Amino acid sequence: MADSDRDVGCAVDRVENSDRISIMDKVTDQLQITIPQSLVNEFGIVPGDEMSYQSTGDAIRIVPKKPRHALDLQTRLALFDQATERQATRQRKVATAPIQSDATDRGWTRENLYHRGRAD
């Protein structure tokens, strides 16, 4: 197919909607698309980055594999310490909770389950 038969690689529409930008582009003969420079800058995409393609029904979502805003080491360690403390608190609560040893405390017994719903 000759280039004169179709538009190759040109942006045909651009719609700005609040914080989302929609840009229409054509797929090349080699099934490639160009990521607009504004999106490259916004997401910090560089050559060699891995991208994830997700089917969302009637659209394709392209997501960079790397996290958008990576946290620094200090912040990650602080979050880890907080999560560790929350887990320790949960384990202390479980360890100090009274254990129900008598089946009659719950208001029914296993024997009740065997006869439930039968017309004896």
UniProtKB/TrEMBL annotation:
Residue segments, region Disordered: 87-120
Coiled coil feature spans: none
One of the record's GO molecular function terms: DNA binding
Basic and acidic residues composition bias: residue spans: 103-120
Pfam families: MazE_antitoxin
Residue span, SpoVT-AbrB domain: 25-70
Top-level taxon: Bacteria
Name the UniProt record assigns to this protein: SpoVT-AbrB domain-containing protein
Originating species: Entotheonella factor
Lineage: Bacteria, Pseudomonadati, Nitrospinota/Tectimicrobiota group, Candidatus Tectimicrobiota, Candidatus Entotheonellia
